[in-house]
Each structure stands twice: as C-alpha cells, then as structure tokens.
Input
Amino acid sequence: MPTPLTQADFLRIRRFMYEASGVDLSPSKHAMVEARLTKRVSELGLRGFSEYWNVVSAPESEAERQHVINALSTNETYFFREPDHFSWLAEFARANQTPGQPFRVWSAAASSGEEAYSAAISLTEALGEKGAFEILATDINTEVLKEARSAIYPRDEVRKLPPNFIQRYFLWGRDEYRGMLMVAPEVSRRVRFQQINLNQCERSAIGLFDVIFLRNVMIYFNPSTKESLLAQICDKLKDNGVLVISHAETITGLNTPLVQIRPSLYRKRNNNE
Ligand SMILES: C[S@@+](CC[C@H](N)C(=O)[O-])C[C@H]1O[C@@H](n2cnc3c(N)ncnc32)[C@H](O)[C@@H]1O
Output
C-alpha cells in the first residue's frame, strides 16, 4: 500500500486540477482524491503520492496528467436528466429552424453521452429522422468519451424511458452484450464527440450553436472560473440562442449577455438589445 495522501500532496493535486480544468476541489475532497488515485500509485509501483507527483509533473507525462483528470472528474449523468429541458428543446427546435441551415446543439460537458443522445432522440421526434440538426458533444475526460462513442449502455440505465422510445431508438445486445442496449445508429450518427476543455474552448473552431447544454459542471467551478467560462460559452451561441443550465445551478449576479427566459434557460441578447 502506498503511504497516505498528505496535506501537501493534496494541495499539489488540487492546484493541478484547478489549473488544468477549472475544477476546484474543496478540502472535503481529500479522502476522495486519495481513494481514486491510490490504485494508480500502486499500479505504477510507487511508494507514495510525492513520488507520484514527480511522475505527473514531468514534462513528458501528458498521458498521466490526463489520467489524473479522468480519475478526479465526476461524471454522473443519465438519459433525459431534467426531462423538461428535452421537451423544451423539441418545441424550440420546431419553432426556430432556419431553412438551409442545420439546427445546432452543443452538449458541453457531455460525460458518457446520455445528454447528447437524449437531445438527438428529442430532435428526431421533433424534426423527423431526416430533420436538419447536428449535435456536438464534448468533455475533458477521455475515458467517458470512449464510453459515449461506443453508445452502449447497461439495460438499467434506460429503464425509466418510455417503452416506445426504447423500441424505436435502441437495439438490444446479444452474446457478450446481453443485458446492454446500443443507441440506434440513426440517432448515434447525429452526435459527434470531441475532447474539449471548457476553460480553453475559445480556441476551438466549432462554430455557433442554437442551444448549448452546460449542465451540472459549473458546480465544480468557483465564481471567477464560471464568469470567464460563460463569456467563452456565450461567444459560441448565436444571437437569441439559448444556454441550458441545471435547475440546481445559478448564474445570477454574474456578468453575461444572457436574459433568463425560464428557470435554467437563458437567451443570448442580440446586437440591437
Ligand atoms: C456531472 S457530469 C455532467 C454530465 C451532463 N452534463 C449532465 O448534466 O448529466 C460533469 C462533466 O463535466 C466534465 N468536466 C469537468 N470539467 C471540465 C472541463 N474543464 N471541460 C470539459 N468538461 C469538464 C466532467 O468530466 C464530467 O463528465
């Protein structure tokens, strides 16, 4: 067993996570950090976290730094989480389609893909299988992006969906995939996955979006990170485009070009407002 995580080890990892991802680990996360990284320290045959830090901080250790980010990000998500957002999305897309242009949605902290596929199902329902829409789904965590691209989920994950959705939009697994479901290719091909660090998203040439889902990620950021993130996110919204945050989050008091249209939904002001 490696030696326990000291306060100095914790502070180094905390600073690294903050600088790399904006995630601000509070002191109460000490035990979580230790639990999630101890296995890795043992796997590498190291005696403790200060040796591990030497590995992580070496210039050539890009893959190990990604490992820390993957291990310490919290990825809880599920299909149709906060279902009113998806019924609203369907309505909004129907009312705001522009001829000749796809309706564009960005799931900006997509985790293992359930949010993006829920949006794809809702837009297929709203605009039809041949409807003009596209979805970009991004996350900083490379492990969850692999799961998302596979589009395969345990049966339990979809158990709360209406049976007709399961029948229409999922395929049952066979043999080694027994007990699993795969998102049907007509839906999954509408979603493109990419690694993007939200705190550097101004550098990504991903175009402008009608709707951006930024749900259940700002809770890990402090107010100044939130404000700078929202400035970058708003630059990726079309005028009158809508930012969707979680009902559990707030952006009240932050300086943004957004106007609230409903709880958790914010429209970007256009140039004449
Ligand atoms: C709790 S999940 C939210 C998933 C989904 N949006 C939902 O509401 O169900 C938070 C996600 O944010 C991602 N994340 C954290 N910091 C990030 C950053 N700087 N850039 C991109 N993604 C980040 C994590 O990897 C994680 O997958």
Remarks:
- The mean pLDDT is 96.
